[in-house]
């Protein structure tokens, strides 16, 4: 009976063999990768909540003077101030009286969060390379939960800043390690699509903040609501294994084979050849002559590669500055703060989806020019329409955000294709770090709206125009082989000189 049952089973379809020893064992994108994709997506909601949550933690809370015959609440003659708590019962502004000469301290807290995200991305990235993807990922997930809950009970402003920094630190680590875990088991056929769709939960998290804030008007309970979801990360202890690719490259072949066999069984592909093929691939890897590794300085040694590095880094700075800056600036516009932010955040979802189609059919360069142009148009229109109706102002701001939501996934893809292999990590790391610098400056630029509502969109608009101009100097990369060496990086995209007589 057992033989008969075994004979009735369909033979397992062998995996297509490629130059990638890991994908050759488990397939390009099977049932396990699909399950793992949705599992990892859970961690992305929290990154959106904690990164943009400042919008409602420090929501505008009108201040008035209760002293008779005094209208300016910041005047020395005002002896009694009063907050309007009709919309928000409490914010960090009302909690620590961040008004008048201390008004900029509210925006400073968001810059501190962005600094934490930048630091966490780098530190947890190094931890993941040295000690493994799994411990780094679990560490930052649980750090996000614990520090986020501590923020809820902050007794002092400085205490709030310290633990918001740590939340940002953990959030930056979550962004980096979750992406690496996912990309290391997805094959090249679906890697581009998955890398872009991976951004959508961040947009959903951003949009859902307005819903949380609408029903929870006290900042401590609001912070608790966007943090407690992280309890779900407990399932990661059982369901997220170490990256088999990291285990393979660090010589832990037995552990790598064990995980690969489990994935292969889930994908219904043969497991018999995994161990010998992985051992053979690792032996070949050990004997292979290592190519010369590049450094950060190599990005600036030759003129054309230097030019491409500068303009690509500029695109990263602008998109981070515009996206995070305009997300915060929305709260300074008139109208319903909940509806404004819900609509503005929701456009990021179709924007991310559009980036897939645009980059595929229009190419990376033209898509980036169009998306940056949309941001520039929306922002520059807002400069001249700040005295118009709330609907017109919000519409212009949404157009600027929509352009940035298209730009974000494309710069990840474009940068990875533009830099040569020997300095690709250095190039992407530099762009990401400078981009985070833009997001650190964004709240401080938003603070300039207190001196004139037109100043903030003007600064963002000028940067967006600079991004449009700079992108014209970048070469198209769609469908072209990736540059490998520094020499490739210098010649890649150059137009051949016309032969002279």
Automatic annotation (TrEMBL):
Cited PROSITE patterns: MFS, SUGAR_TRANSPORT_2
Main location (coarse class)? membrane
**One Pfam annotation, family name?**
Sugar_tr
- Where are its TM segments located? 105-124, 136-159, 165-186, 193-215, 221-239, 309-326, 338-359, 366-385, 391-415, 451-474
Q: Which GO terms describe its cellular component?
A: membrane
Single GO term (MF): transmembrane transporter activity
InterPro entries, alphabetized: MFS_dom, MFS_sugar_transport-like, MFS_trans_sf, Sugar_transporter_CS
* Tagged with keyword Transmembrane: yes
Where do the Major facilitator superfamily (MFS) profile domain residues begin and end?
Answer: 36-479
Cellular location of this protein?
Membrane
How does it sit in the bilayer?
Answer: Multi-pass membrane protein
Record's keyword terms, sorted: Membrane, Transmembrane, Transmembrane helix
For this protein, the record's Gene3D superfamilies field holds:
MFS general substrate transporter like domains (1.20.1250.20)
List the protein's name: Uncharacterized protein, isoform A
Organism name: Drosophila ananassae
């Amino acid at each position: 009976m057992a033989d008969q049952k075994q004979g009735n089973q369909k033979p397992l379809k062998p995996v297509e063999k490629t130059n990638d020893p890991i994908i050759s064992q488990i397939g390009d994108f099977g049932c396990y990768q699909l399950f793992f994709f949705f599992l990892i997506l859970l961690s992305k909601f929290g990154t959106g909540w904690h990164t943009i949550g400042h919008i409602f933690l420090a929501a505008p809370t009108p201040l008035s003077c209760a002293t008779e015959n005094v209208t300016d609440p910041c005047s020395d003659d005002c002896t009694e101030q009063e907050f309007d708590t009709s919309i928000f019962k409490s914010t960090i502004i009302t909690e620590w009286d961040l008004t008048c000469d201390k008004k900029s301290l509210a925006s400073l807290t968001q810059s501190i969060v962005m600094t934490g995200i930048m630091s966490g991305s780098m530190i947890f990235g190094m931890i993941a390379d040295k000690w493994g993807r799994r411990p780094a990922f679990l560490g930052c997930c649980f750090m996000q939960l614990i520090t986020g809950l501590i923020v809820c009970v902050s007794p002092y402003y400085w205490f709030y800043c310290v633990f918001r920094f740590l939340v940002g630190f953990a959030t930056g680590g979550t962004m980096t390690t979750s992406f690496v875990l996912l990309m290391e088991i997805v094959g090249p056929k679906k890697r581009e699509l998955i890398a872009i769709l991976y951004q959508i939960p961040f947009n959903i998290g951003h949009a859902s903040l307005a819903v949380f804030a609408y029903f929870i008007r006290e900042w401590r309970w609001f912070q608790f609501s966007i943090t407690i979801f992280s309890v779900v990360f407990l399932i990661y202890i059982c369901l997220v294994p170490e990256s088999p690719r990291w285990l393979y490259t660090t010589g832990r072949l037995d552990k790598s084979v064990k995980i690969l066999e489990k994935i292969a069984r889930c994908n219904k592909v043969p497991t018999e050849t995994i161990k010998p093929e992985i051992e053979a691939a690792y032996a070949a890897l050990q004997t292979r002559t290592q190519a010369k590794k590049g450094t950060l300085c190599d990005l600036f040694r030759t003129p054309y590669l230097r030019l491409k590095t500068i303009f690509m880094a500029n695109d990263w700075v602008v998109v981070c500055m515009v996206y995070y800056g305009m997300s915060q600036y929305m709260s300074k516009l008139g109208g319903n703060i909940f509806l404004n932010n819900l609509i503005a955040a929701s456009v990021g979802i179709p924007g991310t989806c559009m980036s897939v189609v645009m980059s595929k059919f229009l190419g990376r360069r033209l898509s980036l020019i169009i998306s940056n142009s949309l941001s520039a148009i929306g922002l520059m229109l807002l400069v001249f329409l700040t005295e118009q109706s709330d609907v017109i102002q919000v519409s212009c701001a949404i157009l600027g955000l929509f352009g940035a939501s298209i730009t974000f996934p494309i710069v990840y893809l474009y940068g990875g294709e533009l830099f040569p292999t020997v300095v690709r990590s250095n190039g992407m790391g530099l762009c990401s770090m400078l981009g985070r610098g833009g997001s650190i400056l964004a709240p401080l630029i938003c603070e300039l709206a207190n001196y004139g509502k037109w100043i903030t969109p003007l600064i963002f608009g000028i940067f967006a125009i600079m991004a449009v101009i700079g992108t014209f100097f970048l070469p198209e990369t769609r469908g072209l082989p990736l540059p490998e060496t520094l020499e490739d990086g210098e010649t890649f995209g150059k137009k051949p000189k016309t032969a002279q007589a």
